[in-house]
């Protein structure tokens, strides 16, 4: 009990609010701002202790620096693996300075206090990213650095820890404002950031071992960390709080990395809906101009055309009521004419790989409209995991990156679909996989005619999609609904024939669905009786 007690912080001691920086230990991989920091510390008479390349960089700048070996009495050894893992380092970091026993131990063993530690870690993430061999990756797992960070951060009552060059300015301002000392609140803040840094670092290593080295799909421990990008105005509702985080380690690029050209800050719902729009738009990467309109994370109009303007007009006509206040995504550079057309209705966010000067000028007239440029579209077939919190746990699954081609389709009806019907089937299928279940999508000539989303049964989704198609025809004065002669896609099988018959009543002539119901034969018979062509994909795309 005595040993344990002596190692605990004296709870009765007064927290030291100001600690003058007299000795600093610097050992950094990222040398951004190092020389300037060293010069500022030296000007204040701080004793600089350093290691390897860090010491060389400081000396090259004309600064007086003590080698860590001078402090420890041991040379750096084992290719630099062992240099700071020494009692004279960690004793100087961990000592509770107003504890008599600790003070006596420091005196007996000639351990000098270290007031400031400046450490950032070996570039593990960058080494992995460049495709290095395993031995090089392992060598870039830092040991001494995290050990010093943890020791200094734990003892933040007395020690200041810096792990990010971006914070050097704040440190110098702190020293300037406190006669060369740091305050307790500052040390506590830096300690929190330090532990976040080591947590993220260990997470990256853990992920590499699990996914890359061990080839595990679902590791025993899933370590996920992220850096807060920004706090948002609120969450889904005003009484909720929200923030955007960027994952540490390998991750895809998308809405979170988009460059905002104009408009007010994005909300939680803006990000969520814009992501849904981008994910669907990515399905048309490298294809003919495509426009996706999303409302409440559901597509309400999707179209391809000879131009973006033509695609916009087709997508908007599908459901211009829902499009009001929606999110728009395009698959190619946004032009001025399309931007002007988009500005004719109230739009929250527009997402594009790029935008020309005319488009940017058009949007400038709508100060609240957000324009996000992604630079590229994500790969819709990329691998990865999705995570969904549930009460008491996390549901983790692989991304729905499955895809089918014409060769995968199985004709199950007496009548085979025409070439155009097959094209319409695949287009409707592409959209349906991004519509909330139960999903029904009517499409014709590269344009959605009607979308039914999120209903508890497939018949109602079919009816809603048909109703939207009929309303569009009435509003725009078409002779018939675009659902007439269309293909209809279902994200899962038709469990009963009623959903399919509702589609037939709306005018659909071809059906694409996964198949796999115990009532498939009944549904096929109903399709044959209605003169429909139907294909099975063998793959479903539920999106709850």
Description of the molecule:
With about 550 residues, the protein is α/β, with parallel strands linked by helices. The chain folds into three domains: about 200 residues, Rossmann fold; about 120 residues, Cytidine Deaminase, domain 2 (3-Layer(aba) Sandwich); about 130 residues, Cytidine Deaminase, domain 2, CATH 3.40.140. The protein has 20 helices and 23 strands. The strands form six sheets. A six-stranded mixed β-sheet has the order 10-15-14-13-11-12, with helices on both faces. It has a six-stranded mixed β-sheet with strand order 18-23-22-21-19-20. Strands 4-3-2-5-6 form a five-stranded parallel β-sheet, with helices on both faces. α13 packs parallel to α15. The N terminus is likely disordered.
In short:
The protein has 544 residues and is α/β, with parallel strands linked by helices. The protein is 38% helix and 19% strand.
Secondary structure elements and pairings:
Elements: H1 2-6, E1 18-20, E2 23-28, H2 34-43, E3 47-50, H3 52-60, E4 66-67, H4 68-72, H5 87-94, H6 100-108, E5 116-120, H7 124-129, H8 134-139, H9 144-154, E6 160-162, H10 168-177, E7 181-183, H11 184-213, E8 226-231, E9 243-247, E10 259-262, H12 268-281, E11 290-295, E12 298-304, H13 308-318, H14 320-323, E13 326-330, H15 336-342, E14 347-352, H16 357-364, E15 370-373, E16 385-390, E17 393-398, E18 410-411, H17 419-432, E19 440-444, E20 447-452, H18 458-476, E21 487-490, H19 497-506, E22 510-513, H20 520-530, E23 533-536
Parallel strand pairs: 2-3, 2-5, 3-4, 5-6, 13-14, 14-15, 21-22, 22-23
Antiparallel strand pairs: 1-7, 8-9, 10-15, 11-12, 11-13, 16-17, 18-23, 19-20, 19-21
């Amino acid at each position: 009990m005595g040993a344990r007690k002596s190692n605990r912080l004296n709870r009765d001691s007064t927290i030291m609010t100001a600690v003058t920086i007299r000795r600093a230990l610097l050992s950094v991989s990222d040398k951004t701002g190092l020389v300037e920091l060293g010069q500022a510390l030296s000007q204040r008479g701080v004793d600089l202790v350093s290691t390897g390349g860090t010491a060389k960089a400081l000396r090259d700048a004309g600064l007086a620096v003590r080698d860590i070996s001078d402090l420890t009495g041991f040379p750096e050894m084992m290719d630099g693996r062992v240099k700071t893992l020494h009692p004279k380092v960690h004793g100087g970091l961990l000592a509770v300075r107003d504890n008599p026993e600790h003070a006596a131990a420091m005196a007996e063993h000639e351990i000098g206090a270290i007031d400031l530690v400046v450490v950032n870690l070996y570039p593990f993430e960058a080494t992995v990213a460049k495709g290095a061999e395993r031995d090089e990756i392992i060598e870039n797992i830092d040991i001494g650095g995290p050990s010093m960070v943890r020791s200094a951060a734990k003892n933040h009552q007395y020690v200041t820890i810096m792990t990010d060059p971006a914070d050097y300015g704040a440190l110098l301002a702190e020293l300037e404002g406190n006669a060369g000392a740091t305050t307790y609140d500052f040390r506590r803040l830096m300690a929190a950031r330090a532990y976040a840094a080591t947590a993220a670092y260990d997470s990256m290593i853990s992920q590499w071992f699990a996914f890359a080295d061990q080839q595990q799909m679902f590791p025993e421990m899933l370590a996920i960390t992220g850096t807060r990008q920004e706090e948002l105005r609120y969450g889904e509702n005003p009484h909720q709080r929200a923030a955007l985080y960027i994952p540490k380690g390998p991750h895809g690029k998308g809405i979170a990395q988009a460059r905002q050209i104009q408009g007010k800050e994005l909300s939680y719902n803006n990000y969520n809906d814009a992501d849904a729009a981008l994910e669907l738009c990515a399905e048309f990467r490298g294809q003919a101009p495509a426009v996706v309109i999303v409302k409440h994370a559901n597509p309400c109009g999707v179209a391809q055309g000879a131009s973006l303007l033509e695609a916009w007009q087709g997508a908007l006509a599908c459901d211009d009521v829902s499009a009001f206040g929606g999110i728009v995504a395009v698959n190619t550079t946004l032009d001025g004419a399309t931007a002007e057309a988009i500005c004719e209705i109230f739009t929250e966010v527009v997402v594009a790989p790029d935008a020309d000067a005319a488009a940017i000028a058009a949007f400038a007239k709508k100060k609240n409209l957000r324009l996000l440029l992604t630079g590229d579209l994500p790969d819709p077939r990329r691998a990865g995991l999705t995570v969904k919190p549930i009460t008491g746990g996390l549901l983790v699954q692989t991304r729905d990156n499955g895809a089918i081609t014409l060769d995968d389709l199985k004709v199950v009806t007496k009548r085979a679909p025409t070439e155009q019907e097959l094209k319409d089937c695949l287009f409707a299928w592409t959209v349906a996989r991004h519509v909330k279940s139960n999903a029904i999508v009517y499409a014709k000539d590269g344009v959605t005619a009607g979308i039914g989303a999120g209903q508890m049964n497939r018949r109602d989704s079919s009816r809603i999609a048909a109703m939207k198609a009929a309303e569009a025809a009435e509003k725009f004065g078409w002779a018939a609904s675009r659902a007439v002669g269309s293909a209809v896609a279902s994200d899962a099988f038709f469990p009963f024939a009623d959903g399919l018959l509702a589609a037939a009543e709306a005018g659909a002539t071809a059906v694409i669905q996964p198949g796999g119901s115990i009532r498939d034969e009944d549904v096929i018979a109903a399709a044959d009786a209605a003169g429909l062509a139907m294909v099975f994909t063998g793959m479903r795309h539920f999106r709850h």
